[in-house]
């Protein structure tokens, strides 16, 4: 136990039923600004954190002691006296005496601040990307290796007469379009994923929810993982129906001249 308490980089702490520290390890002492772990004896979370976190932590510990149910890998936000925040993944269990009576709690907390900040930054990028694709007039979608939709933008959702993206996620082309058209789409998808080459500006026909036929210009790009293996594709379809009609009118006018 001494070796564990001294060398493990995670915070380890024992508390009595009133939330007072009985013992902490050196890693927690250093993070708490203490030169010696023994200095924490008798202190509570309120001596190290702002009231918001101290009260929330105390409430959870009471529940653990009352019901005997451990808290496993819960991400907690720590608010320090100077106002800065950090994040930990905390596991807390009842501390029992030899007769099995609950006399407090024991916890282990791992600092995951860097991971949390990275995830938050990734979420910002996801939100930006989502805002972009949902505000483009083109139909944008992502499919997995089996040709099932995993992402669809709002423009395509609307064109297919759906209310939300969730109505299309997990579906394949043949569950949405007529079989002849679906087979064309599926053949293109497989060619892109099997060959690993982009399909650029292929002119296709799309039947929308209201039954109208639209001419679209489709580009499909293979998606690769870090190992270079193709695990799906992203597609962008631009409606060029109006342009085709204008071109046809111009052709007819030229032929009639």
Overview of the molecule:
The protein is built from seven helices and ten strands. It has helices spanning 2-7, 26-31, 51-67, 113-134, 154-159, 179-195, 241-256, and strands at 11-16, 21-24, 71-79, 85-96, 102-111, 139-144, 149-152, 199-207, 213-224, 230-239. The strands form two sheets. It has a five-stranded antiparallel beta sheet, with helices on both faces. The chain has a five-stranded antiparallel beta sheet with strand order 7-6-10-9-8, sandwiched between helices. It starts with a helix and ends with a helix. The mean pLDDT is 91.
Task: For the structure shown, list the relevant keywords.
32% strand; 5-stranded antiparallel beta sheet; single chain; 257 residues; 35% helix; 7 helices; alpha+beta
The helix/strand class is: alpha+beta
What's the story with the biggest beta sheet? 5 strands, antiparallel
Poorly predicted spans: none
Number of strands: 10
Spell the H/E element sequence: HEEHHEEEHEEHHEEEH
How large a portion of the residues is in β-strands, by DSSP E?
25-35%
Number of distinct helices: 7
Approximate shape: elongated
Strand order of the largest sheet: 2-1-5-4-3
Mean pLDDT over all positions: 91
Helix content: 25-40%
Radius of gyration: 30 Å
Ends apart, CA distance between termini: 97 Å
At a glance:
This protein has 257 residues and is α+β, with helices and mostly antiparallel strands. The protein has helices spanning 2-7, 26-31, 51-67, 113-134, 154-159, 179-195, 241-256, and strands at residues 11-16, 21-24, 71-79, 85-96, 102-111, 139-144, 149-152, 199-207, 213-224, 230-239.
